[in-house]
């Protein structure tokens, strides 16, 4: 009769430290549900990227078809289309890239100044309690959906909206914001500042509070003013974080905030030139049922975004890794 | 002798600390700058609250006052009709509310379980395939199949079109949360506890459920809240996957309502027969936005700290 000794030492050998197969099996069952989700919603759509090179035609599966699903069958059966889908994309490309990259750069530059500013101000405030209240309020918009923001925007800028009411009391004619392009870059910028300044400042605030207090004391003893302390102690220490976060943001420069660009203009067609980013374009294409091969054209936009985005992330990550390894993504 | 020395040293250290405290107190921004900062932040906070204020105020204004005087800072004629109407008639918004509540609840539970399990395995140094599964989840943050493929796969291949499942399954798992949760396990659950449980004969599952999970509750809360907010605020998945109003969530329902409103108003003159006065009330719409965002704003002060934690971990590695 053998009694299993619970204190039996781990089996020796190459994988002694990694435990037996029983333990590995337990770990594998733990990752299984997550693997299923990743397969369904992330990996399954990946092969669909070939749509970019297909002349998509709906093909109903027959008895002999490999795939019984209409989409999968059509994806396989549709003829290749070379680079034609991209040629089609080309005529809108300057506008799409200008909007997507332009807005992203604008948001990055304005965002970093305000976020760092907010973090520093909150960190310096004499009364910690009120500083916390301010930060709590500033962080709140992060949790409010763009659709609710769209409602707020409507209440402010529609024909009978708040701004036009104020304008009317000052004797101005009402402005039709929803059909005038020149206002929209500003509206997007303000909306972006409103939503993300508080959230963006969190990482800077966390970095700031980790700085060595003695540096500031030494500075103060040497007669450095608070401004000088900011300029010569805080900023240089914060710089690596700022630069790295910006480089990482460049890696996502072709990805726009779809919900914002799609919802805020409230479906106004006249604004198309200044509100269509790559994501919005892909969605609009996708929904153009009357256009033959609309999936192929949309696929070309999606391909551009995915592949160029992927390459950009690899490059930016490499740069970050070289200068600031602990901030690199991988 | 030595005890006296130790006491002396302690006293000295205390004095030093106090001195440091004093010098810190002196190394503050001046009262004037402090006042300026306060003013700046008060203005900033007013600007943050203002858009929400306008929605709330217009939702408690009478319809006739809103039509005549437009959107104001203060209700010219107070009325709660919009809310009465919202909950009496309610079919659209109540369906959307029900769908969103089911999706949020189911999705949050699912997220905590799947992410909690996945990241625990990744946090274990003795998991032989740790590297592979870390990459397997991380890669999804870098590359995707694009919206067109996603649209077709979820609707037709996975068969989620016009189901409540579409409102939470696609958002239940995220590589970003895996990173947060793994870091959480690594930094708050001491290796020694797991080791000693193992010596006592506890299997991996039992260790996780009985020993590790109670310690990781703040981490679960962070993941659960990220998931809950994501599902509550989801617009894109519903837009892409569901076509039938019966399965719309809150955000998409109110999006559609607003879109129709602006369209009708702008084209009312062109369409001749339509009388703008007969259109569904604007106060009613604003009330819809208020009940959509309400629960989040109410709960926000309580869950805020979990997000701060999650974002500080995730901002660098996310």
Structural commentary:
The complex is a heterodimer of chains A (330) and B (318). Chain A has 14 helices and no strands. Residues 1-16 of chain A have low confidence and may be disordered. Chain A has a single domain (84-327), classed as Orthogonal Bundle (MetI-like fold), CATH 1.10.3720. Chain A has helices spanning 21-43, 70-77, 84-90, 93-124, 128-139, 146-157, 162-169, 184-209, 213-221, 226-250, 258-263, 272-275, 278-286, 294-323. Chain A is mainly alpha-helical and 330 residues long. Chain B is mostly helical and 318 residues long. Chain B folds into 2 domains: 17-84, no CATH class; 90-280, Orthogonal Bundle (MetI-like fold), CATH 1.10.3720. Chain B is 74% helix and 0% strand. Chain B is flat. The mean pLDDT of chain B is 85. Chains A and B meet through helix 1, helix 2, helix 4, helix 5 and helix 6 of A and helix 1, helix 2, helix 3, helix 5 and helix 6 of B.
Poorly predicted spans of chain A: 1-16
Q: Encode the helix/strand succession of chain A as letters.
A: HHHHHHHHHHHHHH
Please give the number of β-strands of chain A. Answer: 0
The second-level CATH architecture of the largest domain in chain B is Orthogonal Bundle
The CATH class of the largest domain in chain B is identified as: Mainly Alpha
Distance between the termini of chain A: 52 Å
User: What class would the helix/strand composition of chain B place it in?
Assistant: mainly alpha
Give helix % range of chain B: over 70%
> Sheet with the most strands of chain B?
none
| Helical segment count of chain B | 14
State the shape of chain B: flat
CATH hierarchy class name of chain A: Mainly Alpha
List keywords for this structure.
heterodimer; A: 330 residues; mainly alpha; MetI-like fold; 14 helices; 64% helix; globular; B: 318 residues; flat
């Amino acid at each position: 009769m053998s009694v299993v000794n619970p204190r039996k030492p781990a089996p020796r050998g190459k994988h002694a430290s990694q435990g037996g197969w029983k333990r590995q099996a337990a770990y594998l069952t733990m990752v299984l549900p997550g693997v299923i989700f990743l397969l369904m919603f992330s990996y399954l759509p990946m092969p669909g990227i070939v749509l970019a090179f297909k002349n998509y035609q709906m093909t109903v599966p027959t008895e002999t078809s490999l795939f019984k699903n209409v989409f999968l069958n059509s994806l396989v059966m549709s003829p290749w289309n070379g680079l034609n889908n991209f040629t089609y994309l080309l005529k809108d490309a300057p506008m799409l890239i200008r909007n997507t990259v332009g807005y992203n750069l604008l948001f990055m530059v304005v965002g970093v100044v305000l976020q760092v500013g907010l973090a520093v101000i909150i960190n310096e405030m004499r009364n910690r309690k009120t500083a916390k209240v301010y930060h709590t309020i500033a962080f709140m918009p992060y949790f409010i959906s763009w659709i609710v923001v769209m409602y707020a925007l409507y209440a402010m800028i529609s024909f009978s909206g708040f701004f036009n009411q104020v304008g009317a009391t000052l004797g101005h004619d009402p402005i039709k914001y929803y059909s005038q392009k020149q206002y929209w870059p500003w509206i997007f910028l303000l909306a972006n500042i409103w939503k993300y300044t508080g959230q963006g400042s969190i990482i800077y605030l966390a970095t700031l509070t980790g700085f060595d207090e003695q540096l500031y004391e030494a500075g103060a003893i040497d007669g450095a003013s608070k401004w000088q302390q900011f300029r010569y102690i805080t900023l240089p220490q914060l710089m690596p974080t700022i630069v790295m976060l910006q480089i990482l943001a460049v890696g996502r420069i072709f990805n726009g905030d779809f919900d914002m660009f799609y919802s805020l203009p409230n479906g106004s067609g006249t604004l198309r030139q200044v509100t269509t980013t790559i994501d919005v374009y892909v969605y609009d294409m996708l929904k153009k049922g009357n256009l033959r091969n609309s999936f192929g054209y949309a696929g070309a936009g999606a391909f551009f975004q995915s592949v160029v985005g992927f390459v950009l992330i690899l490059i930016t990550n490499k740069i970050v890794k070289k200068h600031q390894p602990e901030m690199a993504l991988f | 002798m030595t005890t006296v020395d130790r006491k002396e040293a302690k006293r000295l250290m205390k004095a030093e600390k106090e001195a440091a405290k004093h010098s810190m107190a002196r190394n503050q921004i001046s009262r004037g700058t402090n006042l300026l900062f306060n003013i700046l932040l008060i203005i900033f906070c007013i600007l943050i609250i203002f858009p929400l204020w306008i929605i709330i105020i217009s939702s408690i204004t009478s319809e006739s006052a809103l039509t005549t005087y437009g959107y104001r800072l203060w209700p010219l004629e107070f009325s709660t009709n919009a809310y009465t109407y919202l909950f009496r008639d309610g079919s659209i918004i109540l369906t959307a509310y029900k769908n969103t509540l089911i999706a949020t609840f189911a999705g949050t539970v699912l997220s905590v379980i799947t992410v909690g399990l996945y990241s625990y395995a990744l946090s274990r140094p003795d998991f032989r395939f740790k590297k592979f599964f870390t990459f397997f989840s991380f890669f999804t943050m870098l590359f995707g199949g694009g919206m067109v493929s996603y649209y077709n796969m979820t609707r037709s291949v996975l068969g989620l079109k016009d189901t409540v499942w579409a409102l939470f399954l696609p958002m239940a798992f995220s590589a970003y949360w895996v990173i947060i949760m793994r870091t959480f396990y690594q930094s708050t659950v001491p290796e020694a506890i797991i080791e000693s449980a193992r010596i006592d004969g506890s299997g991996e599952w039992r260790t996780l459920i009985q020993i590790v999970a109670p310690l990781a509750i703040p981490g679960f809360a962070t993941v659960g809240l990220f998931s809950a907010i994501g599902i509550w605020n989801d617009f894109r998945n519903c837009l892409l996957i569901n076509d039938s109003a019966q399965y719309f969530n809150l955000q998409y329902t109110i999006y559609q309502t607003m879109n129709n409103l602006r369209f009708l108003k702008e084209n009312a003159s062109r369409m001749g027969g339509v009388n703008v006065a007969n259109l569904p009330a604007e106060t009613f719409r604003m009330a819809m936005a208020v009940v959509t965002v309400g629960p989040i704003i109410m709960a926000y002060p309580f869950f805020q700290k979990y997000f701060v934690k999650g974002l500080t971990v995730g901002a660098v590695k996310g």
